[in-house]
Design brief:
- InterPro entries: PI-PLC-C1, PLC-like_Pdiesterase_TIM-brl.
- The chain is of the alpha/beta class and 343 residues long.
- It has an eight-stranded parallel β-barrel.
- Helix 1 crosses helix 11 and helix 3 runs parallel beside helix 4.
C-alpha cells in the first residue's frame, strides 16, 4: 500500500509538472531551486537535423562532445572521430542562415548557431551547454582553457552567464557564492547560456594523462581569481561521477575545491545506492543526473510517455537533481521544457 501511495504521489506531481511550463512567470524561482530536462549528445543528426532545432526543443541542457584537434588547431565536434566534424551545427552567421546551411562544423560553428538563434529568441529560458572534452585540453597546441574562453566570449559575448557573474564582486569563491544561494532567478537568466565542462571518456582512459579537464579548468579559475581576471572565464568545471558525501574531498587540491559548484553523475547510481543527495541542494550546488531513464523502474531511453517523463522528473527532483538528462529528443517542447521545484 505504501508503494501504491508513493506512485500516486509521483503521478500527481507529474501532472503538475506538465501543466506548468517554464514560460509561466509565477514565482520566479532561483536557478538553484528548480529541476529541468536536458538532452544527451544534442549535436547528433539522428536527434536533430540542425542544432538550431535542439535549441528549439525546449531542453534546458544540450550536450556537445569536443575533440582538441592538434593538427588543425581547432575544436572538433563529433562522437568518435577526433580528426573530423560529424554534427548538426551550421555556423550560421545570422538568424536567416539557420536550418539550411552545410553541417559538420567545428565548435565555433556550433557557437555561431547559438548566437544566431539567440537573436531570434532573446527571452529563452537558461540553457546549460555541457561540453565533454573527449581528449581533454591541449594547452601546448593552443587549445587550452584560455583559448576556449576566448572563443566562447567572441561568439556569444554577454549571453553567457559566467563564474564572475555568480561571484558578483562579493564572494571569494564559487563555493561561498553557491552556499549563500547567490544564483539569480530563472527569469533573470532568460537569454543566457551556462557552460559546464567535464573530462572525456578518451581522456580518462589515457594512462599518460593525469591532468584532466576538470582539474585544469579548476586551476584556471583559481589563477584568474588570484590576478583579478575571473571575468575572463566562461565556464563552470564539473565534478564528474556519482559519489556519496562531498566528491571534491580527496580528488582535488584544497586550493581548487571551492571552484567546483557543478556536479555530474549517473542518476541510477545516486538513487540506487541511496546517496545523500540533499548535500547538493542544501549548498545550492547544481547537480546534473545523467541517464534518467535508467533509474529503476527503467523507462524508454528514447520515447517514453509524457506521464513517464513527468514522473521521472518529479522523482529526480525529489532526489535533489537540478537537471536530468536523457535521449528524449523525440518529445515535444512542452515536455522537454518542463521545470519543477527541486526537492
Amino acid at each position: 500500500m505504501r508503494a501504491v501511495r508513493r506512485l500516486a504521489a509521483l503521478l500527481s506531481a507529474a501532472a503538475l509538472v506538465l501543466v506548468v511550463p517554464d514560460s509561466a512567470h509565477a514565482a520566479a524561482p532561483k536557478f538553484s531551486g528548480t529541476t529541468a530536462i536536458g538532452t544527451h549528445n544534442a549535436y547528433e543528426k539522428s536527434k536533430y537535423p540542425y542544432f538550431a532545432q535542439a535549441l528549439d526543443s525546449g531542453a534546458s541542457l544540450l550536450e556537445l562532445d569536443v575533440y582538441a584537434d592538434t593538427l588543425s588547431h581547432r575544436w572538433r565536434v563529433s562522437h568518435s572521430n577526433p580528426w573530423g566534424n560529424d554534427n548538426n551545427c551550421e555556423a550560421a552567421k545570422a538568424p536567416g542562415e539557420l536550418y539550411g546551411k552545410s553541417r559538420n562544423q567545428d565548435l565555433g560553428g556550433c557557437l555561431d548557431d547559438m548566437a544566431a538563434w539567440n537573436q531570434l529568441h532573446p527571452d529563452h529560458p537558461p540553457i546549460v551547454v555541457k561540453v565533454e572534452f573527449k581528449v581533454g585540453f591541449n594547452d601546448r597546441a593552443g587549445l587550452g582553457p584560455d583559448e576556449f574562453d576566448t572563443l566562447v566570449r567572441q561568439k556569444l559575448g554577454s549571453s553567457v552567464y559566467k563564474p564572475a557573474d555568480l561571484l558578483a564582486g562579493t564572494y571569494p569563491s564559487l563555493d561561498s557564492a553557491a552556499k549563500a544561494d547567490a544564483w539569480p532567478s530563472r527569469d533573470a537568466l532568460r537569454g543566457k547560456f551556462l557552460f559546464e565542462l567535464i573530462p572525456g571518456t578518451v581522456e580518462k582512459a589515457n594512462p599518460f594523462d593525469h591532468y584532466w579537464t576538470d582539474e585544469e579548468y579548476g586551476d584556471h579559475l583559481r589563477d584568474l581569481y588570484a590576478v583579478g581576471r575571473t571575468d575572463q572565464a566562461q565556464a563552470f568545471p564539473a565534478v564528474l561521477g556519482a559519489e556519496n558525501g562531498d566528491p571534491r574531498t580527496g580528488r582535488y587540491d584544497a586550493s581548487i575545491r571551492p571552484w567546483f559548484v557543478f556536479f555530474d553523475g549517473d542518476a541510477a547510481t545516486y538513487v540506487g545506492n541511496g546517496y545523500d543527495t540533499s548535500f547538493y541542494s542544501a549548498n545550492h550546488y547544481i547537480l546534473i543526473t545523467t541517464d534518467a531513464p535508467g533509474v529503476s523502474p527503467a523507462i524508454s531511453s528514447t520515447d517514453p510517455t509524457d506521464a513517464e517523463v513527468a514522473a521521472r522528473l518529479a522523482l529526480l527532483a525529489g532526489n535533489h537533481a537540478s537537471l536530468i538528462t536523457s535521449d528524449w529528443s523525440a518529445k515535444s517542447a512542452s515536455v522537454l521544457g518542463s521545470v519543477t521545484t527541486r526537492g
